[in-house]
Design goal:
The protein contains 17 helices and 34 strands. With 744 residues, it is of the alpha/beta class. Among the domains are: 236 residues, Class I glutamine amidotransferase (GATase) domain (Rossmann fold), CATH 3.40.50; 92 residues, Golgi alpha-mannosidase II (Immunoglobulin-like, Sandwich), CATH 2.60.40. The strands form seven sheets. The protein has a nine-stranded mixed beta sheet, sandwiched between helices. The chain has an eight-stranded parallel beta sheet with strand order 4-13-12-11-10-9-6-5. A six-stranded antiparallel beta sheet has the order 14-27-28-34-30-31, with helices on one face.
Length: 744
């Protein structure tokens, strides 16, 4: 019988029959009855898919469908609810014995239910494991109750003004991982590992933006660098100081050491205990000390809060997908997880509507991230939202091949300038559960520049990857085009890799002050990529340009196709450069007022089109991405589309599809998967309802012979036609999400 997933938000979830993995053996079971039909013995305590006697890890065998219920329930009731929601893993947040003084253990205990402690942990694990649910102990290592912290002032994180930090979440303190407190944590780990738990999750650890200046950090820093530890607050305003890099390395190395010691304790007791933490999101890492590349070297899964939304929901709607893409790049092949919360922070006991929850799920799983979803509300009172969770978890379970072990087919990479975030004045710090928002007043906002290009690529239906500076040193040859959105701080090695990439026939698109600084934020006399850009002189930044223009120079340039205006909006900030290469667009001279006469041509180019070896460089001497992010100029979308079409052959062509549908293309063992995320809604957030789209015309360029085309969510086999290495078909309807499997 053909299986079909009901439209999200509208109808109830259809239960299906699937398979569970226990030990080494595939064991069929009927989800609807919850009846396990074992064909081999269960390895007690080691869960569903792992074997203690081998190096095989259970968390790498199937997608993790993690649900965290933050209200209190009886043991069996909670396990039943998790099972009903389609979870195969949970964070046990109401375990009361992780560490004395750990904050907010009872924060979600407004509705009663049993607490789980050491005396009852075995009982709870048995209930969860009976239902095939992994139990990960939530261990808070960053927020400590003030009363307990003051009993151990020698453990507290100390701000650089000499005072202990006592305003975490407004009411808490925090202990330092370099203090003897770490031994208290390790005692707890050993005790927990004696039970049949499936894993430990650290919430934290972090160093806060003004910490840590405790005696233990001062001693370790002096031993390492033979100097006094500097003030983090003072250096954050002067990031080209050599001591800034040392301080960041000291803090990220301290976290890595704490993780390494923790993981060794657990793995020595049981190699099948999963260990991971809450890593750095798409943001500067200096406020927290969390370096994802170091974190994943010491843990099993790389995760970050890509789906935590705050206040007016002003963060980009693409945030979960962008974080999932970055984590995939940084994880080194290990699994990733995006932490998504079904609430609108800071209102802990709020709920996001069904449309927002759907978008959290669809973005996360499309880019191969495992979903962790926190539910703060009473599930029995919110059927529509719970149906979304059931639907996605059921879909993931039924179609695991689409969400595990696939490879991106994208030919375009967008750089997230991680190093620039730590060393460049134009980097802002977004609001998170760990950091307050810190906005920069300096030109060249990195987040805006990045998300402007992210939005542009998404709206022209272009699949793309997200990489960081470290990725520039390896594996970029597979791309046709690399986009560097104000990637200010590059190493000489990375710059040479980029030049060689273009010499060999690759292409780059760069903006504003890309390569104008070294990797530690020191301004260079000449940009490292100036010859690649085709610029021979650089002067000062100018702006803000509130009502000013750019105007065509080389009117026949490919980038201006279908753009007919004489005067086009200028980016908010420009950079004065000189070039001998082709100039499609020049800056006009700034006007004293919006009604102060007609614009006049200046001598300074906005876009420089330069050949370099076998490849091409397009350099934009302004904040193109930031202006696209803020103002959504139609001409900017057209410029970007023209550049993409010239430098990379599109693998996907869509017709009758709005720009609010995002696409991704990935390859599995015997299938190509096309993912379609529908963002179409009613022009406001939070999104309550996603608007369906009909009769989407889709063409894919494929070399492989196609056996069949199937729309997995709607459960339909699609008629298709083949010609000249391409395949065409029509998708009758997309509601929230669709995955099309092309079997080859």
């Amino acid at each position: 019988m053909e299986k079909k997933y009901e439209p999200i938000n509208r109808r109830s979830f259809i239960r299906t029959t699937g398979t569970a993995l226990t030990g080494f053996t595939l064991i069929p079971f009927d989800i609807a009855e919850g009846n396990l039909k074992a064909q081999s013995s269960h390895l007690s305590g080691y869960g569903l898919t792992g074997n203690k006697m081998t190096g095989e890890k259970w968390w790498e065998r199937e997608p993790l469908r993690i649900v965290e219920l933050e209200q209190g329930f009886e043991y069996g009731e909670k396990a039943d609810l998790l099972n009903d929601l389609g979870a195969n893993m949970e964070h046990l947040v109401r375990f009361t014995d992780t560490s004395p003084g750990t904050s907010f253990l009872d924060a979600h205990n407004l509705f009663g239910g049993k607490k789980v402690n050491y005396s009852s942990l075995k009982e709870y694990l048995a209930e969860a494991h009976k239902r095939n649910i992994k139990v990960i102990i939530y261990f808070n290592v960053h927020a400590i109750e003030i009363s307990y912290a003051r009993q151990h002032p020698e453990w507290q994180q100390i701000k650089d003004d000499g005072k202990p930090i006592e305003d975490v979440y407004s009411v808490d303190s925090s202990f330092c991982i370099n203090s003897p407190w770490r031994e208290e944590v390790f005692i707890t780990l050993r005790k927990l590992a004696a039970y049949e738990i499936d894993g430990i999750f650290y919430d934290g650890p972090i160093f806060f933006s003004a910490t840590c200046h405790c005696a233990h950090c001062r001693k370790l820093y002096n031993e390492k660098y033979s100097s006094e530890i500097p003030s983090k607050t003072a250096l954050s305003a002067k990031r080209d100081n050599p001591s800034w890099k040392k301080l960041l390395e000291f803090q990220s190395d301290s976290i890595a050491r704490f993780l390494r010691d923790s993981n060794r304790i657990l793995k020595d007791i049981n190699p099948q205990i999963l260990f991971y933490m809450n890593g750095n999101t798409l943001a500067p890492s200096w406020p927290t000390g969390r370096d994802n590349r170091k974190i994943i070297a010491e843990t099993d899964v790389l995760g970050a809060e890509g789906g935590f939304l705050y206040g007016a929901l002003s963060e980009p709607i693409y945030k979960p997908g962008a974080v999932a893409k970055l984590l995939e790049t940084q994880s080194g092949g290990k699994p990733t997880v995006v932490f998504d919360a079904a609430k609108q922070g800071p209102w802990t006991f709020s709920k996001l509507p069904a449309g927002e929850i759907s978008i959290l799920y669809s973005q996360t799983i499309t880019y191969q991230g495992n979903v962790w979803l926190a539910v703060s509300i009473n599930p029995s009172l919110h059927k529509k939202e719970m149906d979304v969770i059931r639907s996605y978890n059921g879909f993931i379970k039924e179609h695991q091949a689409a969400f595990l072990g696939t490879e991106s087919l994208s030919r375009i990479a967008l750089l997230w300038p991680q190093d620039a975030g730590n060393f460049y004045d134009g980097s802002s710090v977004p609001l998170t559960d760990f950091t307050r928002e810190m906005k920069t007043e300096t030109a060249g906002n990195l987040e805006e520049e990045f998300y402007g290009f992210y939005d542009g690529l998404s709206r022209v239906h272009c699949p793309f990857d997200v990489i960081d500076e470290e990725a520039l040193n390896k594996g970029i040859e597979k791309y046709d085009l690399i986009i560097l959105p104000n990637a200010t701080c590059l190493t000489k090695e990375a710059s040479e890799k980029i030049k060689d990439f273009v010499k060999q026939g690759g292409n780059i698109l760069s903006t504003f002050e890309t390569s104008f600084y070294n990797e530690t934020g020191k301004k260079l006399d000449n940009p490292l990529l100036s010859d690649l850009f085709g610029i021979n002189e650089t002067r000062e930044v100018f702006g803000p340009l509130a009502w000013d223009y750019v105007t065509p120079g080389d009117t026949g340039n490919f980038s201006l196709k279908e753009i007919n205006q004489q005067f086009i909006y200028a980016p908010e900030y420009g950079l004065k450069v000189k070039t001998g290469s082709a100039v499609p667009l020049y800056f006009c001279k700034p006007l004293p007022g919006s009604y102060s006469g007609s614009p006049e041509l200046s001598e300074f180019p906005f876009i420089v089109d330069n050949s370099y070896g076998k490849g091409k460089s397009i350099y934009m001497a302004g904040t193109f991405g930031s202006s696209l992010y803020k103002f959504h100029f139609p001409e900017y979308y057209q410029l970007l589309s023209n550049i993409l079409l010239r430098f990379s052959t599109p693998l996907v062509r869509l017709d009758n599809v709005p720009s609010s549908v995002e696409v991704s293309l990935r390859k599995g063992v015997n299938s190509i998967f096309l993912y379609l995320i529908n963002f179409t809604s009613e022009m406001k957030r939070p999104i309550q309802k996603i608007i369906p789209c009909q009769n989407l015309k889709i063409e894919l360029l494929l070399q492989e012979k196609v056996k069949s085309v199937n729309a997995l969510w709607s459960g339909k086999t699609l008629d298709h036609s083949v010609s000249d290495h391409s395949i065409s078909f029509i998708l009758p309807l997309i509601e929230d999400y669709e995955v099309i499997e092309i079997k080859i």
